[in-house]
Amino acid sequence: MSSIRRDHAHFPLNQRVKARYAPVEPDSGRGFTLSIVIPARNEAENLPPLVEEVVVVFRSRIVERSVDRHRLDGFEVIVVDDGSTDQTRNVLERLSRIYPELRPITLARHVGQSAATVAGFRASQGDWVGLLDADLQNPPSELARLWDALPGHDAALGWRRRREDCRSRRWISRLANAVRNSVLGQSVRDTGCSVRIFPREVALRLPAFHGMHRFFGSLLLREGLRVIQVPVNHRPRASGKSHYHFRNRSLRVVIDLIGVAWLLRRPVRFERLATHSPRPEQIMATMTDAENN
């Protein structure tokens, strides 16, 4: 795993926070469960091979009676149909009859990638959540690599070592990463890579806003998580077309960046030393006094 970057010097929040945010294995001896959230819009052609790949990869990760403390006991695949106008809904209904792990969610209208992802978080039931795009450019096997890299960390982020995109998109992405890291004082290598895993508990408390999917790494660091960055493979888009272009990644992203910079500088953290709970007889006595009065 020498190729995995553990750059704690550029992640100052990791040094200050002592709390462990990764889910703790229950005393019952069971392993962990993973919810794989995939927002999708007009990806009817990509969904059958994508769901099949995800299921094949993660079924092979489930090992019964294993003593591995990081073992995977189960997973679910939550595909959120973000107001698609093609056959995405019908395709998902058909796939759900083939793969019991699949849980499709159909939104009433198009709300955008961030809102669709949040909808997936709130529907998830696993200890961890993993993220993938529906365009098949990130192989599901790379999400499994992040799972294997998690022990000792609270979150894993992928970074595309060789992007299979046009030169202009690669140039814009490099520029955007450099600007974000300069403004936020971080070293997230690839903010546009969708392959991520972090605890469901943390996912549910992240500040939700349109555009948050571009800042998951920064928001996880704001929570004080120990983050590892893992190189992942990237494939050309097999079918369909990208939903992103320069116009929806310019001024709007700059405004989001200013907002995230403000959030990073105003975190609320505290350590609770003790919780003093009254004994049951004290509670009953208080209730009796209140009734008599």
What is the strand and helix layout of this fold?
Layout: H1 12-16, E1 32-40, H2 47-59, E2 72-81, H3 88-98, E3 105-106, H4 113-123, E4 128-131, H5 140-149, E5 155-160, H6 167-184, E6 196-199, H7 200-205, H8 216-222, E7 227-232, H9 251-264, H10 280-292
Parallel strand pairs: 1-2, 1-4, 2-3, 5-7
Antiparallel strand pairs: 4-6, 5-6
Can you give a write-up of this model?
The protein has 293 residues and is of the alpha/beta class. It has a single domain, classed as Spore Coat Polysaccharide Biosynthesis Protein SpsA, Chain A. Helices cover 37% and strands 14% of the residues. It has helices spanning 12-16, 47-59, 88-98, 113-123, 140-149, 167-184, 200-205, 216-222, 251-264, 280-292; strands at residues 32-40, 72-81, 105-106, 128-131, 155-160, 196-199, 227-232. The termini are far apart.
What's this model, at a glance?
This protein is 37% helix and 14% strand. With 293 residues, it is α/β, with parallel strands linked by helices.
Poorly predicted runs are 1-19
Give the name of the CATH superfamily: Spore Coat Polysaccharide Biosynthesis Protein SpsA, Chain A
Radius of gyration: 21 Å
* Largest β sheet strand count, sense and barrel closure: 7 strands, mixed
Tell me the count of domains: 1
Q: How much helix, percentage-wise, in residues?
A: 25-40%
| Structural class determined from secondary elements | alpha/beta
Quantity of strands, as a count = 7
Oligomer: single chain
Q: Mean pLDDT across all residues, rounded?
A: 80
How widely separated are the two ends? 68 Å
